[in-house]
Specification:
By secondary structure, this protein is of the alpha+beta class. Helices cover 26% and strands 25% of the residues. The chain has a single domain, classed as GHMP Kinase, N-terminal domain (Ribosomal Protein S5, domain 2, 2-Layer Sandwich). Helix 4 packs parallel to helix 5. The radius of gyration is 21 Å and the shape is globular. 37% of the residues are buried.
Length: 292
């Protein structure tokens, strides 16, 4: 008789995964096939967790457009609980109390993550809260709170190399962009009133070998981290033409002509492409009554 208090392993044999130990062999030498003005394809699905008030699942394709051993895509899932009444012991708030939580799953990256949040996950949570707060109509939900939880199920394999080389900030921007998109779709699934759907976008200033000067590219995940000179991540509402969050970083931003403006405009272009996917998924689930 099987022991119901334990999770029994599989009856057959299993082969454990084998990872390459040479860091130089982990980086792919495949060139970028996408043009500089295009982003990766993404898949978005709402209502993946019926227990929660709203949920969404986001999946980005691999950096090189195909599944390889040295590169993988990014998968995120978001659940929203609320709006619900705050405890009686809490202080009175005339607006909706927003709480965001971003966490990597222990198996999300090549190097196993801990169960407690580190500084990067807390930083992502703060940026996500700032991005969503500008879109939610909090005055319609007094004395209520909204919990938004984003779990990174799988991170890009190349991001682990960036962290080893000390360039993890560039890749955190791509993760933040994905968190903004999946959280925006989950909040819409929960029926929370918003002024617009928030979309994330990332652009970077990249120095290429065959180019005389650095160029601005969208969704810079398939470049050598050492060639990235500056990067920008925004949370953008296209219908209102407003930014709810801006994160820009780089050493060469104050040289040349208006590099900050070029990076922001590139990130806006990327966010508009992602916004079309989010709005399409939201509109697909809305039932429009027939006119009689």
């Amino acid at each position: 008789m099987a022991d119901r208090r334990r999770i029994n392993g599989p009856s057959g044999l299993t082969i454990p995964p084998v990872y390459l130990e040479d860091e130089s062999a982990l980086s792919s030498n495949q060139p970028r096939t996408r043009p500089a003005t295009t982003t990766r394809n993404l898949f978005l699905k709402k209502g993946v967790a019926p227990v929660s008030s709203g949920s969404a699942y986001l999946e980005l394709e691999t950096p090189f457009g195909s599944t390889t051993r040295t590169a993988s895509g990014m998968k995120l899932v978001c659940t929203v609980h609320g709006p619900r009444a705050v405890p009686k012991s809490a202080a009175f708030s005339p607006h909706l109390v927003l709480s965001t939580h971003v966490k990597y799953a222990p198996f999300a990256t090549r190097q196993r993550r801990g169960y407690l949040r580190d500084f990067s996950e807390r930083d992502l949570s703060a940026h996500l809260e700032s991005a969503l707060r500008g879109a939610i109509m909090g005055e319609r939900w007094p004395k209520s709170n909204l919990d938004v939880t984003v779990t990174v199920l799988e991170g890009d394999f190349e991001r682990e190399i960036s962290h080893i080389q000390g360039h993890g900030d560039w890749d955190m921007m791509n993760v933040l962009s994905g968190c903004i998109m999946v959280a925006s779709a989950a909040i819409a699934d929960a029926g929370v009133d918003c002024v617009d759907l928030v979309a994330g976008g990332v652009s970077a200033l990249v120095a290429k070998r065959n180019e005389p000067s650095p160029i601005v590219v969208l969704d810079p995940v398939d470049f050598d981290p050492e060639s990235v000179l500056a990067a920008c991540c925004i949370a953008y509402m296209p219908n209102r033409e407003e930014l709810s969050n801006l994160w820009i970083k780089g050493e060469d931003l104050y040289t040349g002509e208006l590099l900050q403006t070029k990076l922001v405009l590139g990130a806006i272009q990327a966010s508009k492409a992602n916004h079309r996917v989010i709005s399409g998924e939201v509109a697909r689930s809305v039932m429009i009554p027939k006119l009689i």
